[in-house]
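Structure, all two chains, one model.
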Amino acid sequence: MTIRGEAFIAGAYEHPRREIPDRSVAQVHAEVALGALADAGLDMDDVDAYFCASDAPGIGPMSMAEYLGLRLSHVDTTETGGSSYIVHVGHAAEAIAAGTCSVALITLAGLPRAARKRGGSRGAGFFLATPEGSFEAPYGHTTVGMYALAARRHMHEFGTTSEQLAHVKVAASHHAQFNPHALLRNVVTVDEVVESPLVADPLHRLDCCVVTDGGGALVVVSPDVAHELPRRGVKVLGHGEAVKHTSGGRPDLTYTGAVSSGPRAFAEAGITPADIDYASIYDSFTITVLETIEDLGFCEKGKGGTFVLDGALHAPDGRLPVNTDGGGLCNNHPTNRGGVTKVIEAVRQLRGEAAPEVQVPDCQLALAHGTGGSLGTRMASATLILGQEDS
Amino acid sequence: MTAAELPTPAPVPSPETEVFWDATAEGRLLLPRCRACGYTIWYPRAMCPSCASTDIEWVDASGRGFVYSFTVVRRGEGAYRESTPYVLAYVELEEGPRMLTNVVDCAPDGVRIGQPVEVAFHDTGEGHALPRFRPARAEDDDG
């Protein structure tokens, strides 16, 4: 079964706020659900499938289905970290193609900034409950630290530099200045990135994504539903997902699961990386983007550091405009995972509704890529290829 | 076993891993090895992820390896909040596996990829020890 052309993204909505101390998590899920349905021209009553990950309160889909009043013929709570929501689009298209549903709602929401201000944080218990937990958590492994290990090894093997990584952040900041909702709208320079404090060598503070409250939602519909809607939709052309792990203790930190998810998605869509006009690439850290660009085939392995130079990632004229909303590095990384925002900006680009300064002219084909877990070790990658409605 | 300057959060042994953790109290680094295909496995588990055999034996590791990658963590979390800077690293053991650990007993900024290291056990105070690694002593320093 292929999903090529079997489903359309009809609605996409990103919560406009980045700090939301006055809402519950369920409430933000509801707000983004309503936003995406309104964008599509549909109602809550039309939804017959619901997709969420572990950021949704309660067990799987049950609490939110009840909260939202959904009557569902299909649910999917695939949890692959920040790539979950890109997987969800692929799975929604598969379910629609199989005929089990026709209007699928996907939501992400969370309030990590608000929780941090209240002094709460995820304890070590989460890690100690996993089979690997006792062999990793006692050593003080932080999220940044794990990505820093990948960055260091990439530098060692390929000569990648901190300055090259900084270009990823510079591009994000260039885009974020045109996004009125972005948390960080100031344009930064390579020097400012490499002179910002080290968090875990070689990653500096400005190599790291923002921490934001918020969320986003998507509505994926069947071709029959799409054709009756007033808004321009976006066609789902291909999807690939992959879990990469350490293979019994042999992690190679220099590549990601995108080496598998990318080719699957491109093959299904029947296109190549050179055909992509715009790419949303998961940017928890600058190194996440650099390795992913290589793994998706936009350049040779190890050449990502050179590829990102000279404004390559800048819209509208760069070789590969990336994350034109400002990405996780500047705009939004709701609930410490930004997968849904990657699809939302790709939808904006294909509809011609990105900020005018960063709208890619005649954007026909877009890619959205998610990364979950820890780069190069135990992780999940998901790649989605999208096209204009009539592509 | 020696006292540690870094925190020593206690592991939570399971029926699969208690042999490993009990050995740490004796200063032994055990590795599970598959009797069917010979694969040396990390982290310890009751099944070989290479061939799916459940015929697993324990072997003593040499305790020697080298730094595969490292970072100097400057913002710690939880028990490590007050312990920065410290070195988080993947050490590749002579037997093949790369394990997440700390490199200790040296200046954090002096650690290098490829640096030879040897195991050092840090008592958790709860009956087990954390295997960490320190710069390997030069050959002629031995014994």
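The mean pLDDT of chain A is 96.
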